[in-house]
Specification:
single chain; elongated; 7 helices; mainly alpha; 153 residues
């Protein structure tokens, strides 16, 4: 098989780089696992499942009034929640307020949380909705423009 007739696949190119055109003839590199093939589980699947199970236990304890359990939930998820809020509102103080309000809503809503999704998915949705509400608030855009003008002067 000439290079011109060869299939244009990463498997072929990788085999050529190793000097093994025989491996490349079928277009597959046997040393590379398939991406999105479903044959190999996601590398973080086990850790996500463990985190979800630990969260369920913490939620049950928090529902029963265990303040330390709720504190642990907050500590486990506050950084990711803050990163999401900051990406959406683009202001650190606003992001802190969004996350604080989100955890208040989580605390109030724990009795209604049935675990149809992971705790973080629920928290993510709350943070996202609060962030969108804040960004849409009338007057916020004008305040941002005024602040920008002051920095420019």
């Amino acid at each position: 098989m000439s290079v011109a007739d060869a299939p244009r696949s990463s498997g072929y190119v990788a085999a050529l780089a190793r000097g093994s055109v025989a491996d490349a003839a079928d277009g597959h590199d046997r040393n590379v696992r398939g991406v999105n093939s479903g044959q190999v589980a996601a590398s973080n699947r086990a850790s996500r499942e463990l985190e979800a199970e630990q969260d369920r236990e913490l939620i049950e304890r928090a529902r029963d009034g265990d303040r330390q359990a709720f504190r642990t939930l907050v500590e486990r998820h506050q950084r990711r929640a803050f990163a999401i809020a900051l990406a959406l509102v683009r202001d650190e103080q606003d992001a802190r307020e969004v996350v604080q309000e989100a955890f208040l809503r989580v605390h109030w809503g724990l009795p209604a949380f049935h675990g149809g999704s992971s705790f973080f998915t629920w928290l993510y949705r709350i943070v996202t909705n609060l962030s969108i509400d804040l960004v849409r608030r009338p007057g916020r855009r004008e305040a941002e423009l005024d602040e920008h003008r002051l920095r420019a002067d």
